[in-house]
Design a protein that fits this description.
The complex is a heterodimer of chains A (155) and B (111). Chain A is an alpha+beta fold and 155 residues long. Chain A has three helices and nine strands. In chain A, the strands form two sheets. In chain A, strands 3, 4, 6, 8 and 9 form a five-stranded antiparallel beta sheet that branches. Chain A has a four-stranded mixed beta sheet with strand order 1-5-7-2, with helices on both faces. Chain B has 111 residues and is α/β, with parallel strands linked by helices. Classes of the chains: A alpha+beta (155), B alpha/beta (111). Chain B: Pfam families: ThiS.
Chain lengths: 155, 111
């Protein structure tokens, strides 16, 4: 068995088409890994009593991909046994219940991939230049992640 | 409706500067990118602006607000990305090269 043939890879994609859990999981599957951990961010239909019609995402695409690559690099420093990482984020209109983001990580044993997935989504929310607009019936709102250190949510 | 635009901001302060002059008053053409709320307030997504080669990040913000006064309302909630590195609005000295990308970054909400 030659594990050097299964070089660790990062799969990063920002796209307007519907995301696929099957596709993202299959990217990270490895015969040397006993665990694939997954996070799916989906669209809720309500916020503070208002009905959400759909979400719209935009991104500073080139910088977002660079920042996600930095997250992958940090994951590999913290959890060296992690094999493959996939981060797919949807842009444009995302209907209710559909996925906005899917993150998958593989590792030989489950602890590392579970922790790495949580780290990925938490850090993405703090550092990747992507913006979400919630569309309600009569208005809309640009959302601000609480993880974003330059958001002024106490105004 | 948002659109790209070209806008010349101001003339360089030094008159008749010889080629290769590296004075900090010399202006530089940079690409400014607007996202999310800042794009709505500015009314466009990108443009070329002429700004001093060296200035603090706060001074750069003030140059941009001169062109788009409606941006003033989000001053306390934005950071810059200069050459794709985050920069707070403040005393940090920026040295800009021609064609550098400067982005206005409102609070992010990915994921």
């Amino acid at each position: 068995m030659d594990e050097s043939e299964d070089v660790p890879k990062d799969f990063i994609k920002l796209k307007t088409e519907k995301l696929s859990v099957d596709e993202v999981s299959e990217l990270v599957v490895s015969p040397y890994c006993g665990a694939v951990s997954l996070f799916i961010g989906t669209t809720r239909n309500n916020f503070e009593g208002k009905k959400v019609i759909h979400l719209e995402y935009e991104a500073y695409t080139s910088m977002a991909e660079t920042e996600i690559k930095k997250i992958c690099r940090d994951v590999r420093k913290k959890w060296p046994s992690v094999k493959h990482i996939a981060v797919h984020h949807r842009l444009g209109v995302v209907p209710i219940t559909e996925a906005s983001v899917i993150i998958a990580v593989s590792s030989p044993h489950r602890a590392e991939s579970l922790e790495a997935v949580m780290y990925c989504i938490n850090t993405l929310k703090a550092s990747v230049p992507i913006w979400k607009k919630e569309i309600y019936e009569d208005e809309y709102s640009w959302k601000e992640n609480k993880e974003c250190f330059w958001a002024n949510s106490e105004k | 409706r948002l659109s790209s635009g070209r806008r010349r901001h101001r003339e360089p302060a030094a008159e008749g500067s010889p080629a290769g002059d590296r004075g900090s008053m010399r202006c530089q053409q940079v690409s400014v990118l607007y996202f999310a709320r800042s794009a709505e307030l500015a009314g466009l997504r990108c443009e070329t602006l002429s700004v001093p080669r060296q200035l603090t990040s706060l001074q750069l913000w003030e140059e941009i607000v001169k062109v788009h006064p409606r941006l003033a309302v989000i001053r306390d909630q934005v950071v810059f990305a200069v050459r794709q590195e985050y920069v707070l609005l403040g005393d940090q000295l920026l040295v800009l090269q021609p064609g550098d990308e400067v982005a206005i970054i409102p609070p992010i909400s990915g994921g």
